[in-house]
Amino acid sequence: MSRPNGTGQSKKDWDLSGKKLKSLPQSLLEQAEEARRLDLQRNKLRQLSGISNLVHLRELNLSRNELVDFPLEIRSLKLLERLYMNQNNIKVIPEDIFPHLGKLHFLKLSTNRLPKLPLDLSQCHSLTYLNLSNNCLKDLQALVGLPKLKELLVERNSLTELPAQLFQKGNSELTLFKATGNPLRTPPEEVCDGGVRDIQSYFAMMEEEGPDTHTTAWTVKTMFLGSSMAGKSTLCRSLNKGVPMRVEEEDRTEGIEISEMEMEGVRFLFWDFAGQEEYYLTHHVFITPRALVILAVDLASYNMEDPQSYKEKVCFWINNIQLRVPASVVLLVGTHCDQCQDQDEVREKKRHIEENVRVMLEERKEVLQLQQKNLKDNADPSLFSEQMSELDRLMEYHLQVLELVPIDCTKHEDIVKLKEHIVRHILTKDTFPCAERTLPKSYKEVELAIHDLVGQNQIPQHGIVSFDDLLSDLIPHLELGEENVHSILRYLHRIGIIVWYEEIPALKDRVFVQPSFLISLFKTIVRHDLVKQLEAIPRDALRQEGNLLVHRGTWVDDFREKGTLHNAATRILVRRELRRLGLDDEDLVEEVVGSKTKEGTLLSLLQHFEVCLPAKVGSPLNPAAPEFKPGEKQWKSSNLARGDTDGACLFPSYLQDNRMVVQMWGEDKLDDINVYVYFLPEVPHGFFHRLIIKTCSLYPTHWIGKDHCLLSSGDKLVLMREDNKDGDPYIQIRCKRPETSEFRRSWDLFLSVMYKLVVLSRQWPGLSQHVHTPCKEKGCTAYFVWRDWQDLTETDIYDLVQEEKQLCRNGHTRRTELLFPKDPVINKSEGK
Ligand SMILES: Nc1nc2c(ncn2[C@@H]2O[C@H](COP(=O)(O)OP(=O)(O)OP(=O)(O)O)[C@@H](O)[C@H]2O)c(=O)[nH]1
């Protein structure tokens, strides 16, 4: 939205944003009665003396100021319709304000310090939108009775329960409700994630069943992570059985193994993740919030002299957990103690790891603080306020890394000791506030009914069942309506008991009652020894797909050199795995594996999770390609890849080099447009490959390498490069300097990549990013920091910079459009 900028404004519409104001200016107060809309965001206001004179005000924006007290005078603004008070320091809202604001329908109070709400807020009868996210609220009782409230956001507060009346069907107009980041028990967060409908079902079932029937369940998803051979499976199986279990080396985990057990009334869902790097790409999908992470570290092979040892065995995992689920609880377990020389060595290593972790977490905090200080030191910090509040949010996350427990997995008493240790932590609400959940008994009944169906072979052992079949099998056993069963199934999916990707059109009719089965399908393709698997495909399996030995050779070569796996090979590998698992349902095999004419669900899933993308195979000459005719306006690029079920899929993570990309791109030039996106603490594992998949799906002409990718749109090329080694990790985006008239087109291409990058980053809420453009002067080390840009959907990014030229800290002047998105044509025509 572009606004009048200070001069020549109408008297109705005042834009006083970002002017360092500490009080309302006299010029405004002199014309107070005329003002209809007032934008005061990004100032230094602590009080608003005189605002009550603006009696005709409809919209007031006070966001990003320094208000501590909610200004009482606001109650005089009886015509106010929209009020923005977000990003202040408000601690208290007095009573007797909101009943006076009879026309207010939009209220944004997010990112303040409110511990409670005034009880008469419920008398603000016109309110339809209310944002209270990022406060310290403990209950929402004050909101009961708001008759028109449609959208309510209360993310990241301290709520443990929600008032049932807020969601009562018939009385409530709510259509949107978001509450992630609260220690919710009634209803649990996994129910709230399903939105208003699921919460309504939950409370309706609670009421129907009566107060004595609710169960308080303690359920904990426990994820075992750590390097290969650290002892995760040994730990997992030993804890499960209560005695040491030996895991043979050839019995290593591939993908993820799931099991379940109960300890002291707490139900544990164990997810044992394979340690080899190849599997990490699919792990990402299953590493979910509100879980306990057990990070296994082999103490015997841990080398205190070698920094790489800490990096690989501890740092990599903690960083990745912190990026993906920043508020996790991590329990360090040091295994193989019996293979250390003596107890002194164990103690030394324990101390070394704990100290390193402490320093690492401390450093991260310091870097975030430093970054914030740098932004504040800017001439106009208000231009960086989004980035600053993002840093605030990151600093509030608290990754809890518990004291390291050294054990010998072969010793009975060590297993018992560890078991007790885990239960003690889970039952301590301070460490793990989300384990306790209050649920109507129907939730357990649905779960047991599914279990029974599997036991009675009404659901096949592999557990893949159509949604409708499952529903019609379940309903006769339960006294529940269809909608309630739906909402319970959604809950079971969220806590990891079943898998149901309702949001993926190709899969919404399928429920995976045994999640481990789905994972075993993933691991037929995403695995460390895929070449060996391909080489071992027997002749009869080849023939069945209409292929010869020579094809198998091509598949191996294409996979090794181009990271490309032919769909025919995928079909053979997956079909073989299904047979191994005892599946003889040909229809189902075809559905999962696909055929020459139809894509299977497995590839749909891997594409959905950005693990691979369709690729072209065969001759580079395509006889069906549309012919280029000069002058013809619409020349469609022929994207053979899409929908070519007999084609192949490209897995960027399997690529070994960048030769092709480097060849196509040529040399870097000093005057290229060149932007660096820095990542803190590092570029998450798999991020760059997912970015490649996201952007290449947009631009079908592309070249991909190990950590380079080149995209083409018309005659414009954009290069992406990842550097995640020592130093400051970044992704670089680069394109050749365009003709002056073409800056806008180049920046459009750039921004589409950056937009995909922003969308992808949301999968890693613990990530911090900042964007720089280096100074173009030869030898100059200075750079230009991008102002707030992340909210690309709401801001007009071409408003980012209005100056024609920018000065680097070493005194070099540069034209703005070489550094930031800025449309010279627009800016000239507006005479800015
Ligand atoms: N002596 C001894 N051996 C252990 C201990 N913990 C695990 N092992 C052995 O170490 C080997 C690797 O253990 P696993 O549990 O398979 O390791 P993992 O971390 O699951 O390995 P991946 O499946 O590759 O991720 C097995 O042979 C275990 O029996 C321990 O505390 N002491």
UniProtKB/TrEMBL annotation:
Entries under Pfam families matching the protein: LRR_8 (PF13855), Roc (PF08477)
PANTHER family documented for this protein: MALIGNANT FIBROUS HISTIOCYTOMA-AMPLIFIED SEQUENCE 1 HOMOLOG, PTHR48051
Gene3D superfamilies noted in UniProt: P-loop containing nucleotide triphosphate hydrolases, Ribonuclease Inhibitor, ROC domain from the Parkinson's disease-associated leucine-rich repeat kinase 2
Swiss-Prot/TrEMBL keywords: Leucine-rich repeat, Nucleotide-binding, Repeat
Record GO biological process: regulation of signal transduction
GO cellular component, one term: cytoplasm
Residue ranges occupied by any Roc domain in the UniProt entry: 213-429
InterPro entries linked: Leu-rich_rpt, Leu-rich_rpt_typical-subtyp, LRR_dom_sf, LRR_domain-containing, P-loop_NTPase, ROC
Molecular-function GO term, any one: nucleotide binding
Entry protein name: Roc domain-containing protein
